[in-house]
Amino acid sequence: MNHTPGPWTVGDDTQFMNQVEIWPAIGCAYGSGPEVIANASLIAAAPDLLEALQMVLDYLNTGDMRPLDLRKASAAIAKARGES
């Protein structure tokens, strides 16, 4: 992978209005109200979502999916939704 390795997390508000950092310092999410946290959560979940999609593709190609893979995929979706 060429991207910054995960895990990525939602940081605190910055000194700028409607901006939330993504850690490690890969960028910021912008928006207003709850939208900015939702955007930050989705961005922070990107490495987890990529891993979950790879597991799904592996399953489709081999038919072998372990229960752990399903838990990881569910956790990635929850993180993207800001539920974790």
Radius of gyration: 15 Å
The strand count comes to: 3
Structural class: alpha+beta
Q: Kindly, what is the distance between the CA atoms of the first and last residues, rounded to a whole number of angstroms?
A: 25 Å
How would you describe this protein?
With 84 residues, the chain is of the alpha+beta class. The two termini are 25 Å apart. It folds into two domains: 1-44, no CATH class; 45-79, no CATH class. Helix content is 50%, strand content 17%. The mean pLDDT is 84. The chain has a three-stranded antiparallel β-sheet with strand order 1-2-3, covered by helices on one side.
Produce a short descriptive summary:
The protein has 84 residues and is an alpha+beta fold. The chain has two domains: 44 residues, no CATH class; 35 residues, no CATH class. The mean pLDDT is 84.
Which properties best describe this structure?
single chain, 84 residues, alpha+beta, 2 domains, elongated
Fold blueprint:
Layout (H helix, E strand, L loop, with lengths): L8 E5 L5 E5 L3 E4 L3 H11 L1 H17 L4 H14 L4
Antiparallel strand pairs: 1-2, 2-3
